[in-house]
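User: Teach me something about this protein's shape.
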Amino acid sequence: MTFTVWCPDLERVRVRIGDVDHEMRRADDGWWTADVEASAGTEYAFLLGDDDTPLPDPRSTWQPHGVHGASRVYDQDAFAWSDHDWAGRSLERSVIYELHVGTFTPGRTFDAAIERLDHLVELGVDLVEMLPVNSFDGTAGWGYDGVLWSAVHEPYGGPDGFKRLVDACHARGLGVVLDVVYNHLGPSGAYLDRFGPYFAGQSDWGPGLNLDGPQSDEVRRFVVDNAMMWFEQFHVDALRLDAVHALVDTRAMPILEELSTETARMSAVLGRPLSLVAESDLNDPRTVRPRSSHGLGMDAQWSDDLHHALHVRLTGETDGYYADFAAPGALAKTLRGAFFHDGTRSSFRGRTHGRPVDVHELTGTSFLAYLQNHDQIGNRATGDRISATLPPDLQACGAAIVLLGPYTPMLFMGEEWAASTPWQFFASFPDPELAEAVRAGRRREFGRHGWGESEVPDPMDPATVERSTLDWDELADPEHARMLDVYRSLIALRRQHPELSDPSLSDFTVDVADDDSWLVMHRGRFRVACRFGDVAPPVEGEIVLEHERLTVTATK
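Assistant: First, the predicted structure itself:
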């Protein structure tokens, strides 16, 4: 077989197969090749220049020994897929469920997750969004410190394990969204810069990619090829692109637009819908505007403003970036137009921020709404869920606004039963110096916000992972079961009545009390009324769902 690697500035490259090193040939474009007898399962590594240190393949699809070990040849065509009739799943009118494979079940594997998929089907979920599954150093972690983007994390079950999970999802009618990180690499095992000019600049999270400098064409191809691999070889239905605002790219064709173009082509080839969902802090509608309208062509983006406005209204927290969202009518404004900061001053940033959404041009499908997600829980010092401080009646109101509003709703694993387990930040770097640096940095960060060191869990302690793992036995508890029934009922209503999943923003109206004590969403003939204070909202029509502070009515 032919081994290839891009090393444009090196004079010598070898590939090690077993104990034998083979010289590689350089082409004018900087790609090196070597034809060596090998097959699936063969382990190999590259030696750069005269350095005899073996390094894994930057495009490796199998890393059985971790991010520092040898790569293993993987045959993408050997897996026996059963989803030949899978027609795909688009974002429109879908409900998304975000989960982390390593804490979704005590088994912490893809196969263990498969055993819980029927719960998601019964809940009414359409798309399962998985936090990053690519290889990172250590066994446990959120996945955002990945360094080998094409290799599936071996402790979860490796590439075959992930394919089994995707195949099982499709068999149950569930689409799969995969979280991918192109804005930085993790702190351990990021060897790309030894191969070529992959890096440019540094973010708070790690080295960024050279997307617009000299020799950046192949770096961009590295990103695009990775994205297309997940669609074509692993059959995923959508990608969630982490923190795209951190991508430094000044070229006339931004990498996001390039990804959008290539995704559309791949969708045509595969004959099923494929989607791109961006996480962006820019509040710029151009992110989700079609390419034909001079946008970047993302199918959707997360709406943190909606989360913040809803969180403040429900909890009363106004620290940090929550402060601006305590303004009267903040939730109603954000529900009507996706962004609260649409050219308004952001006190957290110390400047004006954002741009208005044209509600006649874009629909709610372009924005994800959520009461909780991995960031908004895990980046709290103690990883506490909203259900840790919020009574069930108010959580039900928050769930109704998310699930019956015009936006694409997303739930975080365990939210549907008000799980008591926190979801805390954790990692497992084997390097003791790096582990201590992460531990100290985490405590220092929260210390600036008034948390004592003893209150911040040790991210390197295995007990932190254990605490963050869902306790499925809670489903038998009456209190948790009642919340699960609320979520199932809301999703069932959404499915049964098209008005309750209508993504139109131009026709969407919200009534709100002057003191924000109640809110009513108008959804066709339905009214979704939430009482936050002592004053009850006006309701009319037949009650189709009622839960203390929440009332859903329908008129003829």
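Now, about its shape. The mean pLDDT is 96. The CA atoms of residues 309 and 331 lie 5 Å apart. If you'd like, I can walk through any region in more detail.
User: That's plenty for now, thanks!
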